[in-house]
Amino acid sequence: MTAIVFYAVASIVVLSALMVVTLKNLFHCALFLAVAMFGISGVFLFLGSEFLAAVQVLIYVGAVTILVIFGIMLTRNVMDEKIPARNSQVPLSLLVGASFLFVVLFALYQWVTLPPGPAPAAAPDLMNNLYALGPALILPTNGFAFAFEFVSILLLSALVGAIVIARKDPS
Amino acid sequence: MNVIPVVHFLYLAAILFSVGLVGVLTRKNALSVLMGVELMLNAVNINFLAFGKYWGVSSLPGQVFVVFIITIAAAEAAVALAIVISIYRQWRNVNVDEIHNLRG
Questions:
Q1: A79: closest CA among B59, B28, B61, B49?
Q2: By the CB < 8 Å criterion, does A87 face chain B?
Q3: What pLDDT does residue A80 have?
Q4: What domains can be seen in chain A, in order of their start residue?
Q5: Of A64, A76, B18, B89, which residue is 20 to 30 A from A101 by alpha carbon distance?
Q6: Residues B60, A49: contact at Cβ < 8 Å?
Q7: Torsion over CA of A35, A38, A44 and A45, rounded to 10 degrees?
């Protein structure tokens, strides 16, 4: 049962990702991006990280997709149906993508024959998982505190920079 | 939850990454390129979580890295949107192959 749900979610993710890449109407692309992000948050649930699934819905479906839709609306008249949506390097790009996919899938297929990894811990329950993630992020003893502060400063400076870049030139 | 082999998550991530890569390489509109980048970042997130599950003992480093990636992706989306709007104001155009003022 779990497997059936997983493969359904995975195929939804892949199909909507294909739609994002192939559809001509940018607005539909953004909506399918939201569907793909929902599916990916479902995949996160299967991977046992409920917190990140919620964060995925909040950030990607709630913020990034909406930002992209704002961008599409602000640059509306660019979406002329007569202008082709793709550039001239489609065959080469398809070749690159297909060969990358082939190499990675082949490597993974080889990897299947290797022995499985260390035995998974006893089924992690929701609250233990949640309570462990917070200290892992900010406790100085865990080694991630510096990266946490660094990424906070990065986010702050990126937001300030975005405002500065998008602002109208005063002159 | 353990009925699905970890490698199937990696298959899904590889397919998603390739689709995003083709989108980045083929689309003209800068916003479509941004959407392709988001797909690739999420493929990487799935990989991190899948390997965290594979190592089993503690999947926390994988989750922490995914938190960082999501943060950086949000920052990247904000800056990219600002650049797109700025470019649109300048040239009335957001097609990445027609904006080549820096070409020598």
A1: B28
A2: yes
A3: 65
A4: 1-79 (1.20.120.1200), 125-171 (no CATH)
A5: A64
A6: no
A7: -130
CB contact under 8 A, A64 and B38: yes
Q: Model-level pTM greater than 0.90?
A: no
In CATH, what number is assigned to the domain containing residue B24? 1.10.287.3510
- Give domain status of residue B85, yes or no: yes
Range 20-79 of B in CB contact (< 8 A) with A: 20-23, 25-29, 31-32, 34-36, 38-39, 42, 45-46, 49-50, 52-61, 63-64, 66-68, 70-79
CB-based contact A125:A47 (threshold 8 Å): no
pLDDT in tens, B2-38: 567 888 888 999 999 999 999 999 988 888 999 999 9
Interface of A with B in 29-58 (CB under 8 A): 29-30, 33, 36-37, 40, 43-44, 46-49, 51-52, 55-56
Q: What is the mean pLDDT of residues B86-97?
A: 82
Distance from CA of B88 to the nearest CA of A (A): 7
Query: Which ipTM did the prediction report?
Result: 0.89
